[in-house]
Specification:
The protein is an alpha+beta fold. It has five helices and eight strands. α1 packs across α3. The chain is globular.
């Protein structure tokens, strides 16, 4: 049996400093290291993820691309090839009210060593550019913890605006949305 990695349907996006590409099994160690970092997860889950959970996450990313035509990218510095994070669109089928079912959910997470470099804004803008071409003019959403000031600034810079607050898994969340230009 032959398997192609990354999944053939994942586009590669190159920005001034970064490459967004499909995940491969070789990304497990770097991704697991990121998701173990308490600085990274403090506003996402509040707890580090183990390798098994990260492996399931990587498979879920591939499944999004294979079944929905969009998903998350692995993000690397173009000059060094170093893994710096993950970002993209998903449909996690979240049990949240109000529901944003059917709307692509934008998300991003960066290794703590990549914080403060402007990478998140660069990544989100690149992904949104791809999304405008892929989705057309539709509403996209993101969900951010109120304490995550850095991500809220990135979302605002990229055109997201708060539309409500909700509780998700017992934690307060800010729901933001953006209309992708046609």
């Amino acid at each position: 049996m032959q398997t192609n990695f990354p999944y053939d349907g994942v586009p590669t996006i190159i920005t001034a400093r970064l490459t967004l590409r499909g995940h491969t099994p070789d990304d497990l160690a770097a991704s697991a290291s990121m998701w173990r970092d308490e600085t990274v997860v403090r506003h996402i889950s509040g707890r580090p993820f183990n390798q098994e959970e990260v492996w399931a996450r990587l498979l879920r990313y591939g499944g999004h691309w294979a079944h929905l035509g969009y998903g998350f990218w692995a993000v690397c510095e173009t000059a060094t090839g170093n893994f710096v994070g993950e970002a993209g669109f998903a449909d996690f089928k979240r049990g949240i009210e109000p529901s944003f079912a059917g709307k692509p959910e934008m998300g991003w997470a960066l290794c703590s060593t990549a914080h403060g470099k402007g990478y998140a804004t660069e990544i989100v803008q690149a992904a949104l550019g791809w999304g405008a071409h892929h989705f057309g003019a539709i509403e996209t959403v993101c969900m951010i913890a109120p304490e995550n000031a850095a991500s809220l600034r990135v979302a605002e810079k990229c055109g997201f605006a708060e539309f409500t607050r909700s509780i998700y898994h017992g934690e307060q969340s800010i729901l933001l949305h953006r209309i992708l230009p046609a």
